Protein: Osmotin-like protein OSM34
Amino acid sequence: MNFPKNLPLAVSLLAITFFAYTHAATFDIINQCTYTVWAAAKPGGGRRLDQGQTWNINVAPGTTQARIWGRTNCNFDASGRGQCETGDCDGLLECQGYGKPPNTLAEFALNQPNNLDFVDISNVDGFNIPMEFSPTTDVCRRLVCNAPINDQCPNELRTPGGCNNPCTVFKTNEYCCTDGPGSCGPTTLSKFFKDRCPDAYSYPQDDPTSLFTCPSGTNYRVVFCP
Structure:
């Protein structure tokens, strides 16, 4: 049987494409803050990061509703049980669920339609630590929320260690969009976050200016205090 001369090249390209869209994405989680951050990931668990330390996790293709965040002012015992002032996840060092607001979030869904990852930074659960969420190579947008939000936080949103989103405080459709698509819009309080972090979600239906895409197969970094 005679094979086309370009078949080996075609097979190689197919294999490369398959690998790019099916291998786990690597996330380098880096603490550049002057204080300790207890990094958390769902999926992934948790890790104490002193200044300058890095934690690497691999996330399976097709993972959705995933997030990475930082916790502050934590104390854990030898069994990994304790408490954090912000971002606490049921008192566990190795998080199994999401963190308690306020916490700045890096959110993502991998290998979605059209071979794209969906990525964002979100302040919908409030803000506790400045954050960068970016690709490790220059294939898509670098997202940053690095404003002094805790220092400038409106009095009604202030909480120890961070700044709450108004949804957390008031729990109404105006701020939480609980009545479905189109039921809410920007508010004075959500604009406080948007004006300081235009890349980040400021309320739940802030998609047009806050949700971004990267090619599937991209590796990422999340930096605390970039």
The CA atoms of residues 115 and 182 lie 28 Å apart.
